[in-house]
Design goal:
The complex is a heterodimer. By secondary structure, chain A is an all-alpha fold. Chain A contains twelve helices and no strands. Chain A has helices at residues 9-32, 35-51, 53-56, 86-121, 123-137, 141-152, 156-183, 186-194, 198-234, 245-254, 262-290, 292-295. In chain B, helix 4 crosses helix 7 and helix 8 (217-224) crosses helix 9 (229-267). Chain B has helices spanning 3-31, 47-56, 63-75, 89-124, 129-142, 146-160, 176-214, 217-224, 229-267, 272-281, 285-313, 315-319. Chain B has twelve helices and no strands. By secondary structure, chain B is mostly helical. Classes of the chains: A mainly alpha, B mainly alpha.
């Protein structure tokens, strides 16, 4: 990552082992509470469903004659108004929901972190960045996302881009407050004496220090992205060529079957809740585990 | 800082935020890949009509000039003409705005009335069963998808039990008091759905700040003075814990409006959100852009008003 002459080589060792020890302690605290591992298990299960979708169910494309059938042995989750198997739609929808959540939050985290760290490190641009963040956060974001998604035309790429474009300010706000406290610490001043490369200081000292905040905000951003994507799809702005949980709800609403065929809304709703709730609980469990003050209890 | 300059600063801030919203909208409309004229000219128009419209809106001029024209139009309340209804967008939206205001304001009031006492109860019984239940409700509430909870309420209380009407905002053919009563019954389910997704943040914030407040010295002093526990909790500690919870209202307003868009869609509630849903299916871009701007202005103004009221209530704000 840096040139051959590594000015921080002597300090690299203790920092690394310190991080490792903290990591081990966090992991031990994380395992001791059931909530974290259970949430992680549910998330892994959903990831498995998403990856194994082609093996678990055929892609629900062809129309069937069994229209709006309640859950039965043949169709465990029932069928929709065009006779397609709801279980298959949910399974394939898992793929889309996870893809959007991961892609949108990774982009939002990358932009958000860079903005936060640049702002904290170069104070001159800080006020500009924080004004943009404040202004964006004070606007109703969903109507804005709807406008952009409608203009750009519904596709998976649009949805990811739109969600990412309006989620990074939240990340910046979270990370910036942490980065600001780190920038003033003596070891950063020391690093400034050793090198003139701001990029090096940011990469070596500031990013590692804000990593815990980033991990938590990945989860928070991802679960918000799931809700935002479902909301857009529910309004008819989802990708019409792939299944998503929001699209199932949208089609149920469009066909007027929402109130009579309870399974059409219940199962996608449970899927959304399961994903968002387990992600949220995981971030809470991680937060508690990584906080040394909570460990002694 | 005097009161006047405090109010003035808030006014300027609100104005800058609205200006930002307008700028973002303009840039999105003009810089999006695709036809920039799409936003004002329907693809079904003849070429001449389209060309005329483009000149009329100054779309053949440089971007900078276009921005000036756009700003002028927006601040005159000219948001363009709806494709589908051939009426000014502002007329279409202003007809819907009162319903959205009624829904969001009711939901917000419900959230505060239910959320704050729940948070106080949880904090006062920290670590006990009630606290754990409240925390679970708080975290789960934040993970709810509004349409899901809306349909669930609709199904149970509208269809199965028949307690509340299943859609719309009022019963047609009712007058006077009956009409107000029908508005109230139509409001219950959408407002409760919207409350449920908001509740979590309020409960958890109230709980966390109150737990901090209960560890302050003045609480210890009050205890040492032998004041009743109840009085310390509700009068001394809660007053201070209320401040961060009040600022939460401002932070959550944008989220509340987003939730209202989805809720109105589920309940066929004739507000701006339902209008957005209909505009999306008909690709009525002027309505979509107008709806965003109007909602943004509403949120910013509401935020400014709460800020100013808050400034008068909290003596510290004036001096800082």
């Amino acid at each position: 990552m840096t040139s051959a002459v590594d000015p921080a080589a002597p300090s690299a060792e203790p920092v690394a082992s310190e991080n490792e020890r903290a990591g081990v302690a966090t992991w031990r605290a994380f395992r001791s509470e059931p909530l974290g591992p259970i949430s992680a298990g549910i998330l892994l299960g959903l990831v498995f469903v998403a990856l194994a979708a082609p093996l678990l169910a055929p892609y629900p494309a062809s129309y069937g004659s069994d229209v709006l059938k309640a859950p039965s042995l043949q169709y465990p989750f029932g069928t929709d108004s065009l006779g397609r198997d709801l279980l298959g739609e949910i399974i394939w929808g898992t793929q889309q929901s996870l893809l959007v959540a991961v892609a949108a939050s990774v982009i939002a985290i990358a932009i958000g972190t860079v903005m936060a760290v640049i702002g904290a490190f170069f104070r001159r641009v800080d006020s500009f960045i924080s004004i943009i963040v404040d202004l964006t956060l004070s606007l109703p974001v969903l109507p804005l996302m709807i406008l952009v998604a409608a203009l750009a035309g519904p596709s998976t790429a649009t949805i990811i881009a739109v969600i990412a474009a309006f989620s990074w300010p939240e990340v910046t706000r979270l990370v910036r407050s942490q980065a600001l406290t780190v920038v003033d610490l003596p070891y950063v001043d020391a690093a400034r004496l050793m090198t003139t490369s701001s990029a090096w200081i940011i990469g070596r000292h500031i990013i590692p220090a804000v990593t815990p905040v980033i991990i938590v905000s990945v989860v928070v951003t991802a679960s918000r992205a799931v809700l935002a994507a479902a909301g857009l799809a529910f309004l008819g702005l989802g990708d019409p060529t792939t299944w998503s949980w929001g699209r199932i709800l949208y089609e149920a609403q469009q066909s007027g079957a929402m109130s009579s065929a309870w399974w059409l809304t219940l199962f996608p709703s449970i899927a959304i809740l399961l994903l968002v709730l387990s992600a949220t609980l995981l971030s809470i469990a991680y937060n508690d585990a990584s906080n040394p003050r909570n460990r002694s209890r | 800082m005097s009161r006047l300059s405090f109010i003035l600063r808030r006014l300027i801030r609100a104005f800058v935020t609205i200006l930002f919203a307008v700028t973002v909208t303009f840039l999105l409309l003009r810089l999006m890949p695709g036809d920039p004229a799409l936003a004002i000219a329907s693809p079904n128009m003849t070429d001449e009509a389209r060309a005329l419209l483009l000149t009329q809106y100054g779309l053949d001029k440089p971007l900078f000039v276009q921005f000036g024209l756009y700003l002028g139009q927006v601040f005159q309340g000219n948001f363009g003409t709806s494709f589908t209804q051939s009426r000014p967008v502002l007329d279409v939206l202003l007809q819907r705005l009162p319903w959205t205001l009624l829904l969001t304001f009711t939901a917000l009031t419900l959230t505060v009335i239910v959320g704050i006492p729940l948070g106080v109860l949880a904090a006062s019984r920290r670590g006990k069963l009630l606290d754990k239940i409240v925390q679970v409700i708080g975290v789960t509430g934040q993970s709810l998808f509004v349409p899901s909870i809306g349909v669930l309420l609709l199904y149970v209380f509208g269809l199965m039990l028949g307690w509340f009407p299943i859609g719309g905002a009022y019963s047609t053919g009712t007058y006077g008091l009956d009409w107000y009563a029908s508005v109230a019954t139509h409001l219950v389910l959408p407002a409760v759905s919207l409350m449920l997704i908001q509740l979590g943040s309020y409960v958890l914030t109230m709980r966390a700040t109150l737990i901090d407040a209960l560890e302050e010295d003045y609480v210890t002093l009050a205890k040492a003075n032998g004041l009743p526990k109840r009085r310390i909790l509700w009068k001394h500690a809660m007053r201070n814990a209320l401040l961060p919870t009040t600022t939460l209202i401002g932070l959550q307003l944008g989220f509340l409006v987003g939730g209202a868009v989805l809720t109105e869609t589920v309940f066929a509630y004739p507000g701006i959100g339902r209008g957005i849903y209909e505009a999306v299916t008909q690709l009525d871009f002027p309505v979509l852009q107008g709806a965003f701007l109007l909602l943004a202005i509403t949120v910013v103004v509401a935020n400014m008003v709460t800020d100013i009221i808050y400034g008068f209530l909290d003596p510290r704000v004036k001096t800082s």
